[in-house]
Amino acid sequence: MALLLDLANIVGGFLLAVAVLRLLPRVGDDLGRLAGRVAPIAWVVGLVALVTGGYYLIVHLVSGPRVFHFEVVGVGVGVALLWDRLTGRPAPRDAQTTGATGVRLLLAIFGLIAIVVGIQGLFTPDG
């Protein structure tokens, strides 16, 4: 289950950070096309991140040892990816403007953090 949380953080972080990743020279267009292909299942990634992050958050709140940043970031990624389904309003990440400013920039930075946290979670022992 921890692997699901880490993978959801990585893929969800990529989907959130694509507004900034498109600005990279040489690979930005390819990353944008990849994100376009993965975008239809973003709600599944968000649901997995929200459920696994929420599960570990509840487990660590009740039985300890402490709350870890992996689950907090997972819940944040899940809420960000499911924003349009939870509130009924369009998500700021879906705006078709060029570049990343305002809330889109904040979500992109959070996405980059989620990618780093997900990669860190892959190499952190679960025990």
Could you characterize what this model shows?
The chain is mostly helical. Helices cover 72% and strands 0% of the residues. The chain is built from 6 helices and no strands. Helix 3 runs antiparallel to helix 4 (69-81). The two termini are 13 Å apart.
Structural class: mainly alpha
Classify the beta-strand content into a percent band. Answer: under 5%
The backbone outline, from C-alpha atoms, is: globular
Q: Secondary-structure element sequence?
A: HHHHHH
Biggest beta sheet summary: none
Number of helices: 6
Q: What is the residue-mean pLDDT, rounded to a whole number?
A: 88
* Uncertain stretches of 5 or more adjacent residues: none
- Helical content band: over 70%
Quickly list its features:
mainly alpha, 6 helices, 127 residues
How would you summarize the topology of this molecule?
Layout: H1 2-21, H2 28-38, H3 42-63, H4 69-81, H5 83-87, H6 103-123
Helix pairs in contact: 1-2, 1-3, 1-4, 1-6, 3-4, 4-6
Give a quick summary of the entry.
This protein is mostly helical. It has helices at 2-21, 28-38, 42-63, 69-81, 83-87, 103-123.
